[in-house]
């Protein structure tokens, strides 16, 4: 499923109002809020539309692109190998699935990928990530339930350095952002990464479920405060009419959205492109 199909529900919500003969800003405001664009971004979009002239659709598209500009960046891991990418998120955000898709994404581009199965809490976690690693055709360092996740990460990065892997993907346990002890454990994993390889992890990406809407912003704020996030991956856009959530994520957090999940398949992960997103949201 592509981004355009993924955003169909949100686009239907907005396009009817934008293309109407008479633009009703109050109705459009309600629709934008409903799509989780957020109050701040909605106000900016409406202000731009109020002086749009004869083509509000094009004006809205260009304003969305402007709001999202300046966050684009390369999605390739850092050139110093092995690049260590730590993936974090709350329970049920689609984190492990995203790790599998990222493994496939990078492997398909010629990188040697290894996964650190550092989610040692859930019974099914090790098996789930093993299946994804197998599907993606990448290596994995397995873990046992209750094992110290830091030890798994240590072993994985050590092996990656010895065996010339390009990319380490660290799959961490999902956790509530309000649990101080669990957030402290993520900080420990981050420290372990840097002990094995100075400067690691080069990337810390938060997987954010689009269906949770504005609550996701608070999650992201706390993860960012504790860990220093370098990017966001938005998942489950295909299951919601809240496709506007990407806009406040970028505006409020000043963090780039790197990828969007567009379905359950191995290939259903796309690099985020502001122009394509704005077009798929509006037209």
TrEMBL record:
EC no.? 3.6.5.4
| Chief place of localization | membrane
Where GTP binds, per the record, is at 89-96, 171-175, 235-238
Q: Which Gene3D superfamilies does the entry link to?
A: P-loop containing nucleotide triphosphate hydrolases, Signal recognition particle SRP54, nucleotide-binding domain
What UniProt keywords are attached to this protein's entry?
Cell membrane, Cytoplasm, GTP-binding, Hydrolase, Membrane, Nucleotide-binding, Receptor
Which residue numbers delimit the SRP54-type proteins GTP-binding domain?
256-269
What is this enzyme's catalytic activity, as reactions? Answer: GTP + H2O = GDP + phosphate + H(+)
Q: Which domain of life is it from?
A: Bacteria
- A single GO BP annotation from the record? SRP-dependent cotranslational protein targeting to membrane
Alphabetical list of NCBIfam families matching this protein: ftsY (TIGR00064)
- Cited function: Involved in targeting and insertion of nascent membrane proteins into the cytoplasmic membrane. Acts as a receptor for the complex formed by the signal recognition particle (SRP) and the ribosome-nascent chain (RNC).
Return the similarity comment. Belongs to the GTP-binding SRP family. FtsY subfamily.
* UniProt cross-references to HAMAP family, sorted A to Z: FtsY
Designated name of the protein: Signal recognition particle receptor FtsY
């Amino acid at each position: 499923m592509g981004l355009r199909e993924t955003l169909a529900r949100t686009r239907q919500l907005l396009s009817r109002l934008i293309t109407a003969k008479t633009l009703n800003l109050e109705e459009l405001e309600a629709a934008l809020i409903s799509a989780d664009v957020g109050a701040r971004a909605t106000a900016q979009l409406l202000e731009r539309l109020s002086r749009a002239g004869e083509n509000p659709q094009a004006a809205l598209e260009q304003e969305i692109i402007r709001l999202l500009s300046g966050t684009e960046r390369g999605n390739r891991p850092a050139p110093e190998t092995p690049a260590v990418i730590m993936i974090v998120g709350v329970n049920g955000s689609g984190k492990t699935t995203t790790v599998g898709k990222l493994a496939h994404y990078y492997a398909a581009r010629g990188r040697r990928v290894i996964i650190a199965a550092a989610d040692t809490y859930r019974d099914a976690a090790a098996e789930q990530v093993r299946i994804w690693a197998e599907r993606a055709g990448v290596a994995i360092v397995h873990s046992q339930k209750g094992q110290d996740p830091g030890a798994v990460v240590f072993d994985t990065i050590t092996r990656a350095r010895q065996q010339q892997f390009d990319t380490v993907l660290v799959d961490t346990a999902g956790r509530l952002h309000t649990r101080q002890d669990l957030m402290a454990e993520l900080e420990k994993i981050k420290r372990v990464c840097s002990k094995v390889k100075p400067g690691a992890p080069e990337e810390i990406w938060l997987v954010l479920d689009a269906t949770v809407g504005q609550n996701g912003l608070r999650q992201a704020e706390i993860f960012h405060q504790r860990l220093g996030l370098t990017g966001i991956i938005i998942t489950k856009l295909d299951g919601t009419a809240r496709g506007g959530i990407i806009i406040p994520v970028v505006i409020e957090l000043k963090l780039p959205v790197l990828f969007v999940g567009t379905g359950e398949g191995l290939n259903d992960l796309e690099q985020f492109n502001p122009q394509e997103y704005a077009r798929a949201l509006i037209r």
